Amino acid sequence: MDKLTIRDVALQNKRVLIRVDFNVPLDGNGCITDDTRIRRSLPTIRYVLEHGGKAILMSHLGRPRGKRVPEMSLRPVADRLAELLEREVSLAEDCVGEVVEGRVSAMKGGSVLLLENLRFHREETDNDPGFAGKLASLGDVYVNDAFGTAHRAHASTAGITEHVAVAAAGFLMEKEIEYLGLAVGDPRRPFLAVLGGAKVSGKLEVVQNLLGRVDGLLIGGGMACTFLKARGLEIGESLVEDDLLDVAREAMAEAEKRDIPFLLPVDGVVAERIEAGAPTRVVPVEGIPPGWRMLDIGPETAKVFGGKLAGAGTVIWNGPMGVFEIPDFAAGTEAVARALAEIESATTIVGGGDSVAAVNRLGLVEKLSHVSTGGGASLEFLEGKVLPGIAALDEGLGTTDQGLASTEIEK
Ligand code: AMP
Questions:
Q1: Which of 115, 268, 282, 361 could be cross-linked to 95 through a Cys-Cys bond (beta carbons 3.0 to 4.6 Å apart)?
Q2: Number of folded domains that form the chain
Q3: Does 136 share its domain with 201?
Q4: Which residue among 53, 236, 268, 353 is the active-site one?
Q5: Closest CA to 249 of 270, 224, 269, 231
Q6: How confident is the model over 103-150, as pLDDT tens digits?
Q7: Which residue's CA is minimally distant from atom 5 of ligand 1?
C-alpha cells in the first residue's frame, strides 16, 4: 500500500472530512435493510474520534440526479450510525453552503456531523471544481474510505483532493487496496477466479485481464451460457449475448494457449420461467431442452468447482452462479460460497453485491479473508485499471524517516 493512510496524519482538533460509502439499501418505509456499509466505516470514524478529531462525514445515497429527493435523505443513516457509535450524530441540512459551514465551525473535538446526500447536487457527479472546493473548505484533513465509489471521478472522491492539504486513505480503503492489490500483484498460487452474474459484457475485460494472471477460471451464472453456446452447445432460451460469441471463443482459445483451465458448468438447473415454484430439472449442459433456460449451475458442477477450489492459494469471486434471488436457483451460489469458506489457509476475496449478499445470508463473512464493499470498483481494480479515487490520494510515507504516526504533514 503506497498511499498515505489515516495513521500517518495528526488528527487532534482537526476537522476530518471523511468520504464514506453510506449508499445503503432502504425499504419502502425508509428503513435500512442492510447496514453493512455503515458498520464497515466504523473503524475509521472511531479512530478519528479517539484521536480528538471532528468527524465530518459525507456520502451519496441512491441516484437523486442533482435534486433534493426527501426519500434519499441520509436521515436514516444518521440515526443508525448514532446507535452503532453510541453517540450523537448530527445531520446537516445540506453538504455545502453557509449553514453547513456554521455547523462545522461549531463542532468540538470528538463530535460527528453527517452532511446531507452529496448527489442532491449535480456538481458532485460532474466533478465540478467549484463544488469540490466548497466541500474541501469544510475540512483540514481529507480521508477517503469509500472504496465502492473509488472508480468514479466525482467531486468528493477525486476533485476534492486538488483543494486539500492532506488526502489519506481510511482503514476500509486501505484493506481493500491491500487485498485486491495482493490478488493483482502477488497472489499465493494456485490463483483461481470464479466469475458469475448475468452478462459476459460486464466482465469481459476482467476475463481478458485475469487470463494473464490466474491459474484457472471458473465460470457460472448467466454469463456461462454465452461460453457454452460458443462451444457449440444448444442452450435453449438461456441468457446469451450472441454478439460476444466470437470474443468468448477467443478468450477460451487464449486460455488453452496459456494452458489455463477454463471451467464451465457441466450440468445446470433449468426451468421454462424465471419464477419461484416453476418446475425445474437438472440436466447435463449438452441436454438443455429447447424452450428451457439454465438458471443455476447443477450439483455436479458445484462438486467439480468445489474440488478445484479446495486446492487454491488465492481465490477471487464475483457474481452469483445462478438467479440466486429465487431459492430454487440459489444452490449453486451457496455451494460456491461454502466451498470458499472451507478452503484452508487460502486468501479468499469476494466482491460484487450479489456474491456478498450470498455470503452474508449464509453467515460466512468471517470465514473469508476479505469481502469487498465495492462491486464495480473491485472489478475495475481486477481489470488492472487505475481507480481515480485511489490515484487522487497522497503518496504514502513509505520508507522515509518521517513515517511516524501523528506526524503533521504539509503538502
Ligand atoms: P451481475 O450484475 O452481472 O453480477 O448479475 C447479477 C444477476 O445475474 C443476478 O441478479 C442474477 O439473478 C443474474 N443471473 C445469474 N445467473 C443467471 C442465469 N443463469 N440466468 C439469468 N440471470 C442470471
A1: 115
A2: 2
A3: no
A4: 353
A5: 231
A6: 999 999 999 999 999 999 999 999 999 999 999 999 999 999 999 999
A7: 197
